[in-house]
Design brief:
The protein has 910 residues and is of the alpha/beta class. The chain is built from 36 helices and 19 strands.
Length: 910
Amino acid sequence: MKQGRGVVRAVLAAVLVSVLGLSSFLVNVQAQAPPIAYPSLSKPASLTKSGKNDVAIIVAVENYVFLPAVEGASANATDWEGFFKSSLGVPSVHMLIDRQATREQVERFAKIAASESKAGGTVWFVFIGHGSPSRTGDDGLLVGVDAQQDPESLFARGFSQQELLNLLNAGEQAQTVVIVDACFSGRASDGQALAPAQPVIPTALKPRLLKKTVVLSAAQASEFAGALPGASRPAFSYLLLGALRGWAGQGGEVSAEQALGYTEQALRGIPGRFQQTPGLYGDDKILLVKGAKEADPGLHALMRRSSRAPERAAVSDDSSGCEAGKTRSIDTAGKCCWPGQAWNGKACIGIPSACPNAMFADAANQSCALAACETGMARPKGQTHCCWPDQTYAESRGMCVGLPKCPRGMQADGQQCVPEDPARWYEASCQKGDMAGCARLGDLHRAGRAAPYDLKRALELAQRACKGGDAFGCSLEARVFGLLGQDDYARAFMLNSGACEAGVQAGCVGLATLYHNGNHVSRDYSRALELYEKGCQAGDVRGCNGAAIMYDYAQGVTHNASKAVALYEKSCQGNEMNGCSNLALMYAGGRGLAIDERRAAGYFEKACDGHITTACNQLGVAYRDAKGVAADGARAHALFQRSCDAGNARSCHLIGHQLDTAMGIAEDLPAARRAYEKACSLGEMWACVNLGVMHRDGRGISRDLTRAHALFEQACNGKLARGCSNLGHLYAEGLGVSRDAARGVRHFQSSCEGGDHWGCNQLGWRYHIGDGIAQDHVQARTFYEKACQGNEMQACVNLGILQRDGLGTPQDFGRARASFEQACNGAYQVACTNLGALFQNGTGVARDFGRAHTLYEQACNANEKFGCRNLGVLYRDGLGVAKDVNHARTYLQKACTVGLQEACDLAAKL
């Protein structure tokens, strides 16, 4: 979560993995469509030459010695080379084509790139060729040109992506960008395995990133990527390069997220084409290019026209002889598959992009499946719709007709079966002394299926039933105690053990939870899984959820995402709301399966309706940030409020944040303060910090530095680093307390150790000026570096000053320039002014008044007073511009207005 200095914004973590890539999956047809004239990418693009500190490696293998060719790989690589050299101005670009692209050469040049990297720059790595899963399936291999059609050869001659990232990130660069147009399924363009004896191992790559890094890959798990429709060029690397030239249409600046979004949209829904969804892992906000002006040449329409060429239509639209809903296409090699799938030589693979009516895409089994019938309903053989016994489905009316024969416990209501009143039934039973009735009534109150949703009433009924000898009531008592936050693990163990011995699966599942978490007993994953699976098989869906968690997080078992999904789905269908919430988290984060924000929102909603307050919080974030649903600030606010009312501190904090920043709703500072107060009282330390900021700055409330001090101290004691740094600021500046610079330093040290980069910068500044601690420029540089690496832009400026002036480090104008550029690119305008001064004076760079003018103007437009002063001096003295007293006066007076007395004096002399 990205934390601001004051107000914080919570976001869903989206973990993406780099998986399947290049594989055209075309089959021979009698007539080929004529080549499509795609736009050339060989001409220099019009964009800012921001690559002067960058280094790039391009590896492209079109003609493998022993493996099938990757047509168009060399052409794409040549275009990337021209882009780096001519468009970005990258001084060092290394190309490894065909026979040069061995494992040893890739390793060698990765080390060279790291050694050539510069502070503030980017290391680029582009690979276009074949890929393979690693031996264990937890990494992807970039296959070298000399790999043979043998599994051991692929493992030996393939280069690990994780090893590649480790080598690249050993350099001094600010960021690393890896682009992989490769298929880690280990298959060639015809769907056959590169090594026939090699088992297909699903790759679940989660690389460990050492610094600001992004990996952009051609496709998601279980998908195949391919060539541009009607052309022999790998689609992903072509489209991504187009996005960086400006096709992404993002006003000149293109981030990794925006570039990937363009390629994904271009590849989405092409008729007759297999599903391909590009993937991203790492920092999606990394800025790739600036000043990109080239307009999108209409690639989306061109790709779709080419995919509908007459020569291909006969193959891609043929569904004769197939099961309803399936079709034959170019990508299925003439086999019947669901839409969006491809044939891999043995079976149809890929998550279906569309399913017939009454069916849904089953991600776990990669098929279209019929939804489960409601309890008591049945699906006649050969039909897709569920009806009650004695009913038939009328296609003309789109409904089941006939008087239903309702199962026991249900009654007919017209042509429907509806539940009888279970709460009333069990209430009457309980009053008559039936302890089983009391226990079941308590369970209805626990689940919110008896009005009102009342956990205290559920506990009362469970305890009564347990005392009366009902084993289910005992297991329910243990469960409700936990839901109320009153865990007594010793008693829970006793209650669940007894219930489990009596054959109550709810007790066995409760016991499994204790073994799973190591509460009161030694943690025993094997015993936990045994009990969970036993309960799941017996119909207790909590057991399904517990087992799913173990497979999801590899707790005592091998990670198995598909099994986790299936178990979560089973638990969710059985109304175990934690299962719905956990399944939503998998879809939201792309953990083991493709990200699907729409599905995630649907499961969060079901879980929220089932009283899972964390799910309400996540659903609120989805509505706030338009994740799978249309943005709706009011809906987000209502969900946060619902969760907050149930005691969720995070949601109370997010209410305060919405009201404080007017995010989707009207600003209301008094209400924001109340929400922060509640969240803070519930233990949400960021709310304490934000409330402290309001008191410190007098925002929406009378300024109260004493209260601010107490809140920052509370957050600091609660181990939130930002609380310590804000507390240190009060002491360092003497705000509301007697100035105590040494005490301020101690708090800055605590905050920096806790990971707060603003606190690291403050600590560096105290060493820099010798305030509260002995002056030490070496120490100042150390803490500035740490803060700057964490994108604290003020620290980058301070670091640049030390490097420029040779304080605590050898004087190095190149490093100073890189530090200023990083901060300037991060919109810290003082850095732009300092950078402009280097160009104006020719300090470590060729003197360039034009560049200085641009930087000063950028800073001045943001009301940076020194930038305005320097811009005025350029016009006053005619440095790089024609002398212009009026312009000089305008800029000097602006600097004067924003508080620079020196500029006032200079303006008066004109």
